[in-house]
Amino acid sequence: MSDEKNKFENPDYAKRTVIGPDGKSFVVDPMQDYFLDARPKVYEPVSIPVVEKFLNWARSESLWVLGFGTGCGSIEIPPLMTPRFDAFRFGVQSRATPRQSNVFIISGYLSIKTLKRVVRSYEQMQNPKYVLALGSCTINGGMYFDSYNTINRLDHYIPVDVYVAGCMPRPEALLAGFNKLKSLIREGKAENGNKYVKDFDWYKANQKKIIKDWNMPDYNW
Amino acid sequence: MEFDFKHLGFTLLGLLIVLNWGLLMSALMQKIGARVARRIGIRLYQPWIDLIKNYAIRSQISHGIMFYLGPVFRFSGGVGIFLFMPLIVGSVMWSNYSFQGDLVLIMYFQFFGMLGMALGAGESGHPNSAIGISRGLAQFTAIEAPLTLAIISLAIQYNTLSIVDIVEAQQGGIQNWSAWTNPFATIAGMLAALGSMGHSPFNLVKAPNEIPIGPPTEYHGTFLGVLRTNAAILHVMEAALFMNLFFGGANNWFEFILKTFLIYFWSVFVGVVFPRFRIEQSVAWFFKIPLIAGVVAIILFM
Questions:
Q1: Of A7, A86, B160, B235, which residue has the fewest beta carbons closer than 10 angstroms?
Q2: Looking at the partner chain, which of B50, B208, B220 has a beta carbon nearest the beta carbon of A62?
Q3: B242, B151 Cβ separation under 8 angstroms
Q4: Cis? peptide before A83, omega within 30° of 0
Q5: Mutate which of B59, B126, B226 to disrupt the A interface (most A C-beta within 10 Å)?
Q6: If you ran DSSP here, which 8-state letter would residue A75 be given?
Q7: Contact B261, B116 (CB under 8 A)
Q8: Which residue from A minimizes the CA distance to B39?
Q9: Chains A–B, number of C-beta pairs less than 8 Å apart
Q10: Across-strand partners of A26?
Q11: Within chain B, what is the greatest distance between any pair of CA atoms?
Q12: pLDDT at residue A1, rounded to an integer
């Protein structure tokens, strides 16, 4: 561990020896105790085509969205779920925890600070998982293209299944994006959870290049 | 009682019917909630797709042995209630194994699942799980007080703890139902039912926009699938328990479905009207009118 990296680390996360209430001393390493940092694995689809097709149909009709608003685009999510557009009709529901979600909507610009949380949340989602990028900011930075603290291309950091362009895209565009995602899943082309694992080192290098205060394990599921 | 394969077959068939009815009922209730909010709502077959999707999640992670066992305990709690619950009055085959158990066993199974889930969710180590568990157990303890008083009142009234006997004592017309012969126990029981069904205003434990999702925060994939399968069975079984205790049981499957629907609808009906309680409000609420009604029901039959 280099000194430069240590500079950013919270002293609470440092490895240390603690004396417990019973007088015995033991070693605490919060970075290892709180997170699991094993390398991710590739999960191949079921080898029987009919079964995989059926499961993909079920996956496409039951999209659980992680409620994580990153930028201004998250303002488009409430109308999507409320009476005007009512995405529940199409099997889209929102979940509050990354463990149970399948779809991650990156709603708009991503500051570097948020990217760190996005990476952690994305890695905590279970395979198969899909990313729907909302707005121009996720494609090329949009109106924040020369900002000092936002990223320009999202798919350098996490793999993206569907882009919904616009500034801001309206909920109709988001629904069209969901339909596109559904057809991708049904065709078996939405395997970006595995792609992330296969190109893991590339993604990690990109993430570390931009996140300077990297004080978490490389992979934290 | 001798082991009988036919009886076992009927019990498994009953479990299948109850599971599917539970899934359909949860879809119907979500649909009703959506219509109240002027939405169209989910499709009626959505719960089945969600189940398939959850069972088909490829990667699962574990936080330890209890994390695995939590959903198993919860599921065995739900199936345990099913096994000892008479579904149709007078039918040996549709009574499951109710002759071997009684009300106390069912009360125990209700708590058994909660405790197993508490241990499992506790091991997941997520702070939201821990908060959810403490809230859930506090609320369930508050629910148990009026519910237990109502059940003790019924036990004194009918001089038995067997559900089969309680149901059979209520046959012969609507005037024999406990709802008429023991109204205070029914009030206490049905108000406690609001809490045990887990809808608003008592859904603080699992509401997604509170502490996210509560105890099952870390549960995903097959774990969540098992929990949802159990929830479908448990909702029907809780409605069936109140049906058997207060509303004369069911003489056929149509009556079973109608009565469980209406009893479950009672909690949804209250839920769409009233906003969510905080935990101290909901615990205090159960110690007011429901508890007083339960005590009155006991005093009347002493």
A1: A7
A2: B50
A3: no
A4: no
A5: B59
A6: G
A7: no
A8: A83
A9: 82
A10: A18
A11: 58
A12: 46
Domains of chain A from N-terminus onward: 3-33 (no CATH), 49-210 (3.40.50.12280)
Interior CA angle at A69 toward A66 and A73, to 5°?
Answer: 120
Cβ–Cβ of B49/A82 closer than 8 Å? Answer: no
Distances (CA, A) of A58 to A52, A61, B48, B125: 10, 5, 9, 31
Look at B213 and A96 and tell me if their CB atoms are within 8 Å: yes
Q: Do A62 and B46 touch (CB under 8 A)?
A: yes
Contact check, Cβ <8 Å, A100/B49? no
* Closest among B230, B128, B143, B231 to B190, alpha carbons compared: B143
Q: How far is CA A93 from the centre of its chain?
A: 17
Return the pLDDT at A21. Answer: 87
Give the whole-angstrom CA distance, residue B270 versus residue B199: 8
pLDDT at A35: 66
Q: Which of B49, B128, B217 sits opposite A61 (nearest CB)?
A: B49
Q: What is the mean pLDDT of each run of 10 residues along chain B (302 residues)?
A: 82 95 94 92 95 93 88 93 91 81 86 88 87 90 94 93 91 92 95 89 82 85 93 94 94 94 94 90 94 95 84
Q: Are B107 and B163 in contact (CB under 8 A)?
A: no
Question: What does the block give as tokens for A179?
Answer: 């339909």
- pLDDT, tens digit, for every residue of A80-109? 989 999 999 999 998 888 999 999 999 888
State the smallest CA–CA distance between residue B197 and chain A in angstroms. Answer: 21
Provide residues of B within 8 Å CB-CB of chain A: 34, 37-43, 46, 49-50, 52-53, 56-61, 128, 208-209, 212-213, 216-221, 224
What is residue A150's DSSP assignment? Answer: B
Predicted pLDDT at A20: 86
Checking if the pLDDT of A32 tops 50, the result is yes
Write out chain B residues lying below 8 Å of A89, CB-based.
40-43
Backbone angles phi, psi at A26, to 5 degrees: -145, 160
Asked if residue B71 has a cis previous peptide bond (ω within 30° of 0), the answer is: no
Give the residue from B38, B45, B53, B131 with the most A CB atoms within 10 Å of its CB, the best one to mutate.
B53
Chain A residue closest in CA terms to B125:
A34
Length of chain A counted residue by residue = 221
CB-CB neighbors (< 8 A) of A93 in chain B:
42
Bridge partners of B246? none
Distance from CA of A205 to the nearest CA of B (A): 24
pLDDT surpassing 80 at residue A6? no
Between CA B202 and CA B186 the distance in angstroms is 19
